[in-house]
Write a structure and sequence with these properties.
Elements lengths: L6 E6 L3 H8 L6 E7 L11 E4 L5 H9 L3 E4 L6 H8 L8 H7 L2 H10 L7 E4 L2 H11 L3 E5 L9 E4 L2 H5 L9 E5 L5 E9 L5 E3 L2 E7 L2 E8 L2 H18 L3 E10 L2 E8 L9 H4 L4 H9 L13 E7 L5 H6 L3 E4 L9 E8 L1
Parallel strand pairs: 1-2, 1-4, 2-3
Antiparallel strand pairs: 5-8, 6-7, 6-8, 9-10, 9-11, 9-13, 11-12, 12-15, 13-14, 15-17, 16-17
Helix pairs in contact: 1-10
The structure holds adenosine monophosphate (AMP).
Length: 345
């Protein structure tokens, strides 16, 4: 009989992704420690936590001393912080991936370098740059902050000349202009790579966004797009010497993929894997960062996940319809993701 050592994972962040990493790996006997600026009900009773400023080096040192490995639930941590942590404990996914994924310009540039098709993009630092970009890309175009934009935040759809003129006096440092893609639909691919380089792919996800917020995801079986997406994923994972779960998002235009962005973490479009795949994205991410054998990413059925935005669905109704109900125990707020439900069909 082998003696299984207790494994301890530190997570930077304490939101719903941390919650689902904890809840979906309980059976593995992993202990979690969270580091966050403010703990909330979402994870409060699920794990030990450090509640401190991200600049508090002493608290970070104590956090790192409590765990074997550190991962994160958001890519928006500053390079200095990430380096500090990395010098104390193994950090996965690797810093290089995090730094690329937190900057839209770096993401698109990497895709281009690796010959992964993406829509045209131009770095913006000023209004003059924006005017110039509008000549080169034409209108409509999409203006996005390079960092910190999510769920459609810090993103502007510029349709006409007057939309450009309205930005004349704005500070446009750190933006990116992108050509507008008249896509048929959007997909994401979620994959996991182990420390030895083994890669496993979940089904392709078809995603529906409204106002930049993911509303609905279904797993789909589209051989052609899946093959393209897997090839792009392999290239990026190898280039970044990746460990953990990685998500790539694409536009589908004329049955071809155009890279949109990536997330170096478990992703909202993969929540259906909790019930729909042999081993969920959450468990496989934790397995990967701990150097454990990866689990099967296979899915035998069709699943549909709906986000609960601003308010929760009626629990009784969802259960009556044989849905899986996930409440993140968050305070309701407009446009906030409060939970999700999954149906198998
Ligand atoms: P993002 O944060 O880049 O994923 O953007 C949020 C959503 O806005 C995407 O999922 C698309 O629905 C839409 N969007 C973003 N960029 C573009 C684009 N270049 N062309 C058309 N729609 C876009």
């Amino acid at each position: 009989m082998s003696e299984n050592k207790k494994l301890r994972v530190g997570i930077l962040g304490a939101g719903q992704l941390a919650r689902m990493m904890i809840l979906n790996t309980r059976h593995l006997g992993v202990q979690f420690v969270l580091f966050c600026e403010k703990i909330t009900q979402t994870t409060k009773n699920l794990a030990d936590h450090f509640e401190a400023s991200l600049e508090d080096k002493e608290a970070l040192k104590k956090f790192c001393a409590e765990v074997d490995v550190v991962t994160f639930e958001s890519e928006n941590y500053e390079e200095e912080l990430v380096e500090f942590v990395e010098n104390l404990k193994p950090l996965y996914p690797p810093k290089k991936a995090l730094l690329v994924a937190q900057d839209r310009l770096k993401e698109k540039t990497l895709a281009k370098e690796l010959n992964i098709p993406t829509n045209k993009f131009i770095k913006i630092e000023s209004y003059a740059d924006l005017l110039d970009a509008s000549q080169k890309l034409g209108l409509p175009l999409i203006l996005k902050a390079r960092r910190f934009g999510y769920d459609g935040k810090l993103q502007f759809h510029l349709k006409e000349k007057k939309d450009l003129l309205a930005l004349e006096n704005e500070n446009l440092e750190g933006f990116l202009a992108e050509s507008f893609v008249p896509f048929s639909y959007e997909v994401s691919l979620i994959a996991v790579r182990g420390v030895c380089g083994e890669v496993r792919f979940y089904d392709l996800c078809r995603n529906h966004h409204e106002n930049g917020i993911l509303m609905e995801t279904r797993n789909i079986k589209n051989k052609k797009l899946f093959a393209q997406a897997k090839e792009h994923m392999q290239k990026i994972m190898e280039h970044l010497n990746y460990t953990g779960v990685l998500t790539l998002e694409f536009f589908v235009l004329e049955e071809e993929l155009l890279f949109n962005e990536m997330a170096p973490r478990v992703h909202n479009s993969g929540h259906w894997t909790i019930e729909g795949a042999d081993v969920s994205q959450f468990e496989n991410h934790i397995r990967a960062v701990l150097g454990l054998p990866l689990g099967s990413t296979e899915s035998s059925g069709s699943y549909r996940m709906l986000n609960c935005i601003s308010e929760m669905y009626d629990r009784n109704q969802i259960l009556l319809e044989d849905g899986y109900y996930h409440d993140y125990e968050k305070e309701p707020r407009k446009n906030r993701k409060l939970g999700h439900v999954t149906f198998s069909s």
